[in-house]
Every structure is written in C-alpha cells, then in structure tokens.
C-alpha cells in the first residue's frame, strides 16, 4: 500500500496541492525503530525480574507472544528453555530467524493470527506476554483461546503498562489495559491463582496466572 499526501507548494505556476507519495516504513526502518525502543529498556522494565516470574526454565517450552525482534525471546533462550517466538508480523520473526542460530538451536518462530496464538494442545509449559495485550482486540476471548495451549498447571506471565508516560515508549491511553480488567479477563477465561504486582516496576505491572490441573 502507498499513501498519498497533499502538501502546499509555493512554486509559481504550480498547483497549490502537490501530491507527494510516501511509502510505508520498510522492514529495516521498523526493526530499527523496535531496536531503538529497546535502548535503556533494561533500566525501567527490569527484564530479569519479569523473566524470573516464570520460575525454572531449563528444559521447559515457553511461548513469547508478541515477540517483536526477540528482546525477551533471546533472554529466555539463554535460560536453556525451548522458546516459541510468536508474532503476527512475519518480518519481525524473520529478524529473529536471522540471529537465532547464534543464540540457541531451541528457538522457533511462528506466525500467528491477531486472535489466535496458533499453539497446539498443551504445547507449552509457560507463556510470556509483554507490551502486547493492549493490541489484542478481544482480550478475554484471546486468553480463552490461549489456555488450551498451556499444559495443565502451566504458568502465564503478563507485563504491560500502567498508564501512558512521557519518558518511556508507552502506547496511547486507548491501548492501556488496566490491571483490574486484566484480572477479570483472566478469571473469565478460567485461569486460577492470579497474582498482581503493580508496585515493583515504576511503569508496568506484572501479573501471573495458572492453568488449572
């Protein structure tokens, strides 16, 4: 798709509206933007803390939903987990594919649908979803679809923004999911032992939930 933007032109004899064709961002630009947003991320997001919420990972299979360029995917792989990097953007997954051989042989990329993570029945032991739930149109339905893909007794960890902030790359207020709504959606989807932490991190909350045995 190509956008057409009309801008004023002061050139003599030319139309006041001069069309200017603007292409959508290239994959290189999108990856560069994603990588730029990762700069300084460790200081405010504390990824070690978030990953720690998943517990022991060695020998486990973990789905990183909304993986993007693999910020958490590669960290999970370093913990000797098998990681399925799941995203709806095939170019982001291609970026992970480019580098995964240098990190771990146990990284798989998977193209998903906006309303379906495309997991097999009880395919993963644990799921991590970071900075993603605000972009899921029907979160309650998505969590219900996700649940059968997690083993019985398995763990789901979600971390997202509490509110828009000026000094970190938060989404708009319309994409902020409150911790109260997330808790309700998890309960409605059948998860149990839900734990809420909205104090440890300055800008984000971390929520854990389990799949019933």
Ranges where pLDDT stays below 50 over 5 or more residues in a row are: 1-33
Judged by helices, strands and strand pairing, the structural class is alpha/beta
> What is the radius of gyration?
20 Å
Largest sheet: 7 strands, mixed
Mean pLDDT: 86
| Number of helical elements | 7
Query: What's the SSE pattern?
Result: EEHHHEHEHEEHEHEE
Describe this entry's structure for a reader.
The protein is α/β, with parallel strands linked by helices and 213 residues long. It is 30% helix and 28% strand. The strands form two sheets. It has a seven-stranded mixed beta sheet, with helices on both faces. A two-stranded antiparallel ribbon has the order 1-2. The chain is globular, with a radius of gyration of 20 Å.
Looking at this protein, list some descriptive labels.
alpha/beta; 213 residues; two-stranded antiparallel ribbon; 28% strand
Write the layout of secondary structure elements.
Blueprint: E1 3-8, E2 17-22, H1 27-38, H2 41-45, H3 47-52, E3 61-65, H4 71-78, E4 82-87, H5 90-103, E5 107-111, E6 124-130, H6 139-146, E7 150-161, H7 179-188, E8 192-197, E9 204-210
Parallel strand pairs: 3-4, 3-6, 4-5, 6-7
Antiparallel strand pairs: 1-2, 7-9, 8-9
Helix pairs in contact: 6-7
